[in-house]
Amino acid sequence: MADQLKSREPQAVFKTLISLLLIAGCLWASQWQYQRGIDRHQRNSAIEAAVLRPIISLDEVAENAIAFEWRTIETTGEFDPENQILLKNRYFEGVYGYEVLTRFQLLDGRNLWVDRGWVKAGKDARTAPVITPIPKGEVAIKARLRLDRSLPQGAFFALPATGAGMISKLNAQSGLKSEGFYLDLIGGEDPLLKPKVAAQIPELSDGPHLAYALQWIFFAGLIGYGRILIRRGQILTSKEL
Q1: Is the pTM of this model over 0.85?
Q2: Which of 32, 50, 182, 205 can pair with 70 through a Cys bridge, CB separation 3.0 to 4.6 Å?
């Protein structure tokens, strides 16, 4: 009988080690989810604060676009209808469509892309979507500044050529140059500038990360409690024997 108990002891130690590793993994996952929640909350707070700040001129942005993301800006320039792309796989209220991006030349000669909002896709792959015409000549616009990296993920379908990836990749493929940021058009002096469906601000929700963090702690507790119960049962059984 003593030999049987000794043979079970290494197995008990091994099972306990496995339990401790699982508990450590659960606690790590809990910390990871908690940190994701903190990061998301900070990001949402930064977006909310930037959106509510006063309108500024694009000239004030200079080379520090990162510090001005989500700020509403005013600038003047001219749209280039010959350089327009459609970002596919975009949905609005469950309807498939495209984001329309058009190149815009500033008065100082710099170029950037302007997201003119969402349009519904044509009835089939051969039917082009109906896009609001672009005002001719110089126009003053109001828009929200966005970084190139924050462009919604998707694939580019360019007119007339095709490209893939983010704005920087499109520039590389087409040989065009633009600033390292783009604009979400809000409106302007011409009524045609107001998008029917403007580019949307991301949903400012903290998400379920805190709940997931607590869930992983609960799992860790279950593993520990379960291991204690199993070990306790083995001890009681050995005593009965």
Answers
A1: no
A2: 50
